[in-house]
């Protein structure tokens, strides 16, 4: 690490460390004790709050299922990174996205424009999050999960990707959940590996989803069962 440089203001905040090859756009603000690792790109107008770590390199166990090249972290313009957040090298964060305090975004994850990742939530490696997604506090999006545009994920939701719980061959492909456009998942719900929640579907709080949920279906219970359909009055287009 080297000392501060770039457009961080005339008087750098205390403890700011910028690595080699870091590129900082105009109007970027840094809090105290921020660490930016080598090769990170920070777009114009970003706000990086106290003790955030950007561009951290992954340290993987030998049995890890993570795969693919890891390059530098890229933050588009006007991204807000909360206090204590950790964003790994290889992630891509879209414009005007908010990463909450103590959030954790792994390598090769991508988050679309104007999305929000809540406090303490985890976006694991190789997760794809679309635009205008709302992920509340304490959510775990496991590796290889896909979240399409305009999805709502309630607090404490957990997704999973391994039916065997680590007792599988090394070449086994893990399967995260697929959350289709504008679906809503309530607080504390659990999604088992590979399930798909259809477009505009509604998963009630505390449900355990063990099979695919059709588009516009309302499901609840353990295991989750269909109880009705999302009405026309509740579709996203009525609430824009």
Secondary structure layout plus pairing:
Elements: E1 17-18, E2 23-24, E3 29-30, E4 35-36, E5 41-42, E6 47-48, E7 53-56, E8 74-75, E9 80-81, E10 86-88, E11 92-93, E12 98-99, E13 104-105, E14 110-111, E15 116-117, E16 122-123, E17 128-129, E18 134-135, E19 140-141, E20 146-147, E21 152-153, E22 158-159, E23 178-179, E24 184-185, E25 190-191, E26 196-197, E27 202-203, E28 208-209, E29 217-220, E30 225-229
Parallel strand pairs: 1-4, 2-5, 3-6, 4-7, 5-8, 6-9, 7-10, 8-11, 9-12, 10-13, 11-14, 12-15, 13-16, 14-17, 15-18, 16-19, 17-20, 18-21, 20-23, 21-24, 22-25, 23-26, 24-27, 25-28, 27-29
Antiparallel strand pairs: 29-30
Produce a short descriptive summary:
The chain has 240 residues and is an all-beta fold. Helix content is 0%, strand content 28%.
Task: Describe the structure in your own words.
The strands form four sheets. Strands 3-6-9-12-15-18-21-24-27-29-30 form an eleven-stranded mixed β-sheet, with no helix packed on it. The chain has a nine-stranded parallel β-sheet with strand order 2-5-8-11-14-17-20-23-26, with no helix packed on it. Strands 1-4-7-10-13-16-19 form a seven-stranded parallel β-sheet, with no helix packed on it. It has strands at 17-18, 23-24, 29-30, 35-36, 41-42, 47-48, 53-56, 74-75, 80-81, 86-88, 92-93, 98-99, 104-105, 110-111, 116-117, 122-123, 128-129, 134-135, 140-141, 146-147, 152-153, 158-159, 178-179, 184-185, 190-191, 196-197, 202-203, 208-209, 217-220, 225-229. It is globular and about 60 Å long. A hairpin with a 4-residue loop joins strand 29 (217-220) and strand 30. The termini are far apart. It is built from no helices and 30 strands. The protein is an all-beta fold. Residues 1-9 have low confidence and may be disordered.
């Amino acid at each position: 690490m080297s000392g501060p440089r770039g457009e961080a203001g005339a008087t750098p905040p205390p403890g700011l460390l910028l690595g080699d090859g870091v590129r900082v756009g105009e109007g970027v603000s840094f809090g105290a004790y921020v660490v930016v690792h080598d090769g990170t790109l920070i777009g114009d107008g970003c706000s990086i709050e106290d003790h955030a770590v950007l561009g951290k390199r992954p340290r993987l166990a030998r049995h890890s299922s993570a795969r693919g090249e890891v390059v530098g972290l890229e933050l588009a313009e006007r991204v807000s990174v909360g206090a204590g957040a950790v964003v790994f090298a290889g992630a891509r964060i879209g414009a005007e996205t908010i990463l909450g305090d103590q959030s954790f975004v792994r390598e090769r994850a991508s988050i679309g424009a104007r999305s929000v990742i809540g406090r303490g939530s985890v976006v694991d490696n190789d997760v794809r999050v679309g635009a205008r997604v709302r992920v509340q506090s304490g959510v775990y999006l496991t590796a290889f999960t896909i979240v399409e545009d305009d999805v709502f994920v309630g607090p404490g939701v957990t997704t999973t990707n391994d039916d065997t719980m680590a007792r599988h061959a090394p070449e086994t492909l893990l399967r995260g959940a697929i959350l289709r456009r504008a679906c809503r998942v309530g607080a504390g719900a659990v999604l088992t590996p590979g399930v798909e929640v259809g477009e505009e579907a509604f998963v009630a709080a505390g449900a355990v989803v063990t099979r695919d949920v059709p588009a516009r279906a309302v499901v609840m219970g353990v295991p989750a069962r269909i109880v009705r359909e999302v009405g026309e009055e509740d579709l996203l287009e009525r609430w824009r």
